[in-house]
Amino acid sequence: MAAEPTREYTDEQLNSDAVSKKDIIKFLHENASFEFLKENKLNGKLNNVAKTSKKDQLAAAYNKLFEEKAFKKEGEESLEDQLKAMSDKANALAITEKKNKKKTVEEPKYKKRILKEGDKVSYPDKGDMVSCLYVGKLEDGTVFDTNRSDTAKRNKKGDIKPLIFPVGRGKVIRGWDEALLTMSQGEKAELTIDSEWAYGRKGFPDAKIPPFSTLIFEVELVNVAK
């Protein structure tokens, strides 16, 4: 067992300006057991404890240490070493959680082939209004939807009417929501979207899309409105 430390300060000194809060905290950190420091909320860094503790509380803890003989045992790590070990453990845990989070990030369920480069400046963020021209096909080449053909909707001027919607808000299939966030204004791309990010096992009977269909879209991002 380690030798009992001697009292460095009298009660009169503890209550005077001759002994600072940091002096008392330093003594406690060097001589008190970790359990004692934790119980009395003194197991933090010196500056932090000094900010949150009152002088009379520290003086009381100093006297309590000798009354209870709650001294550091021989071979017991210093508070600084224990705090460092706890910090290292917390950092290691955070790194592990971050790695695990990366591992669980879902792989994209679509492939994109750029047909025409965009301006590489105006990329949409979630919630931005985007305007798109598109042709949607099944894997066998059957067109199931488009706004580029003669039958597509046109505005009052007779121009083809783009599809306008807030991107990333679930207004279209997920494959579109995810892929459009990677496109810049003016870009045209071919998107091959797995059924999981399209219409899944139910398909879309109204558009004659069978269950579990991989869909191929030629999409042009005409405009991005912030």
Structure description:
With 226 residues, the chain is α+β, with helices and mostly antiparallel strands. It is 33% helix and 19% strand. Strands 1, 2, 3, 4, 5 and 6 form a 6-stranded antiparallel sheet that branches. A hairpin with a 4-residue loop joins strand 2 (129-138) and strand 3. The protein is rod-shaped and about 95 Å long. The model has no long low-confidence stretch (mean pLDDT 89). It is an enzyme of class 5 (isomerase).
> Could you tell me the strand content as a percent range?
15-25%
Figure out the total of helices: 7
DSSP summary, beta strand count: 6
User: How is the biggest beta sheet arranged?
Assistant: 6 strands, antiparallel
> Roughly how much helix do the residues carry, as a percent range?
25-40%
CATH architecture name of the largest domain: Roll
Gyration radius, to the nearest Å? 34 Å
**In the CATH hierarchy, what is the class of the largest domain?**
Alpha Beta
CATH topology of the largest domain: Chitinase A, domain 3
Backbone structural class: alpha+beta
* Overall number of structural domains: 2
CA(first)-CA(last) distance: 71 Å
What shape does the CA trace take? rod-shaped
Mean pLDDT: 89
Low-confidence stretches: none
N-to-C SSE string, H for helix and E for strand: HHHHHHEEEEHEE
Q: What's the short story on this structure?
A:
By secondary structure, this protein is α+β, with helices and mostly antiparallel strands. The protein has seven helices and six strands, in the order ααααααββββαββ. Strands 1, 2, 3, 4, 5 and 6 form a six-stranded antiparallel beta sheet that branches.
